[in-house]
Amino acid sequence: VRGDLQLKSQRFRAEREWDWRRLEGLLARVESRSAASLTDEELLAIPVLYRATLSSLSVARATSLDHSLIDYLESLSTRAYFFVYGARAGLRQRLARFFTETWPMAVRGLWRETLAAFLITAAAALVGYLLVAGDSGWFGGLVPGGLTEGRDPTATTAFLKSVLYSSGGKSGLALLAAFLFSHNAQIAIFCFALGFAFCVPTVFLLVENGLTLGAFFALYASRGLAFQLGGWLFIHGVTELFAIMLGGAAGFRIGWRVAFPGDRSRLDAAAEAGRSAAPVIAGVVLMLIVAGLLEGFARQLITDDLARYAIAGATLTIWLGYFYLPRRTRPS
Amino acid sequence: MTTAGARQPQPELRQFVTPEGVDLRLRIGAAGERAAAFLLDAVFLVLALTALTLLTLFSAGALAALGAPDLRNGLGSVMLIVWLLGAFVLRNGYFVLFELSPRAATPGKRIMALRVAARDGGRLTAEAVFARNAMREIEVFLPLTFILGSSAGATDPIGGWLVLLGLLWTGGFALFPLFNRDRLRVGDFVAGTWVVKAPRERLSIDLLDAQEAQGGGFAFSPEQASAYGIKELHVLEDVLRRRDKKTMGAVADRIRAKIAWRPRDGETDAAFLAAYYGALRGRLETQLLFGRRRKDKFDLG
CA of A248 to nearest chain B CA: how many angstroms apart? Predict the structure, then answer.
């Protein structure tokens, strides 16, 4: 400490400046690389230096009139705060936690919304089926034109059947899987985001999905191919439809809490809903990778109806067991 | 914010008390800064996507030229897969991965000195980052589809009206930050986050340590040294740090007139201002120690 300093605030700064600069240097290294680039000693020093800087800030606000010094301490304290109170679990730890706890618990927490999404889809499928079974003219109205690819009431039974068992050329399978995955995953994320508009658009998406499903079943049932269509559809559809329903459920959770926040503020309710539903959507993207692989590869390579049903049943068992079987949770 | 002292009232300041009980006084990112950060990120994304497209095209072409003709189809589809998955990861992963990094900011936000933080002061979780970025689907991509759809609807009046309605509806999502005080976008609303300023201030020198202030030889009477308050002191600090000759001259003349200071031989404006800054700050800081905070020159207690 120099002897020629006239003011208390000058001495104050001279005594502590070294700590501040040390904290600044450590933070710069943490922010540009990672916490792993520091030694244990340096890591432990950060919280201590952070508290020292914070107390410097309090003192400076009360005693110093050096504007730029206070700005500097505010910015340094804020940066250090975010590091000290930020999440520092490693990526591997976080991933492990996601699969063992976060994801299944989040899905279980949405069971009401999932049930609602299932009922909406099932009801829409039933309506679609009954409409097309009663009058095949409905088919064109219910199924978006781009989806039919010639599969409509005017097609021959032989053609309808051939679609179910065509392998589609083996080189194209991976491409098909990749395309289906990115398309469906984008829709699932969209379903989640649309929930914000008070659930209405999410309901529309689910209803449209269900109507299309029912209409196709009615078309194939009229040619006696319902069982075969089931195998073709459910081998991947169990995973895909489940994923889409979960996407819808996540959307419902957000829309519902925004519309009816209960006794909490709308801001808090929305934030709570968003955070509880987000892991479900991250998981939905993973489920759709599985669905894309099943649709792109397994369905094209396995053409036996019973084998297709067996895979469908197995995936359903696995998903339901993984999500809903009671398990011991680690106390957090 | 009750202790903001002589500073101007700043509507973008938010109280943010750490567990240690200190208010960090966070600054909310302004709508313009947020928009600029997003535009920068959009440019980076488009550039990355273009690079990905060119890379897959060229490598497919180069590989196919080497191999047999029947290999060409296979390679083409492999590259298409790379492109499809790459585009998906870019579109959905760019924001999420950058915001999960220690600085909690995308490159665009870093340039604008912004970062994402949890509103409740807790840690910024992966769930929150994921939720706030999934919402971009309705904030950005949905309005975009309506804008792109408007060219298709132009020929048919009903379609045009539908597009207009859609734009109004989705525009509400996109412009959400303009209608609330904390500039929350829909994603922030749903994730419990906000975007705050995170500038990296450098510690500049204490003006009392500056060359001019060391000159000495200036003696101000107590009356002269208490002509101003904290607000004027901060203005003087800004003037001294900026070192603009003309401003310094004007300010020095005003102060000399106010305190009836007779300039001595060879006295420079810079030296006078530095010395007066030291005297005024010393006087006001002594008052602070006695619990008196003099806001400005009109504040006579």
Answer: 14
Rounded CA-CA distance A313/A296 in Å is 18
pLDDT tens-place string over residues B97-147: 899 888 889 999 999 999 999 988 888 888 899 999 988 888 888 888 777
Compute the distance between CA of residue B48 and CA of residue B62 in angstroms, rounded to an integer.
Answer: 21
Is A57 at the interface with chain B, CB within 8 A?
A: yes
A37-49 pLDDT, tens digit per residue, is: 788 898 899 999 9
Q: A172 vs chain B: nearest CA distance in angstroms?
A: 7
Tokens 């992966």 map to which residue? B126
Tokens linked to A236: 């991947």
Mutate to test the interface with B, among A20, A68, A79 (most CBs of B within 10 A): A68
Residues of B with Cβ-Cβ distance to A193 under 8 angstroms? 134-138, 142
pLDDT in tens, A132-163: 998 888 888 887 766 667 777 878 888 888 87
All residues of chain B having their beta carbon less than 8 Å from the beta carbon of residue A54 are 18, 20, 22
Judged by a CB distance cut-off of 8 A, whether residue B26 touches chain A is: yes
* Mean pLDDT calculated for residue range A2-12: 72
Helix (H) or strand (E) holding B184: none
| CB-based contact A269:A262 (threshold 8 Å) | yes
In this prediction, residue B5 carries a pLDDT of: 42
The model's pTM is: 0.82
Question: Among candidates B248, B259, B280, B5, which has minimal Cα distance to A9?
Answer: B280
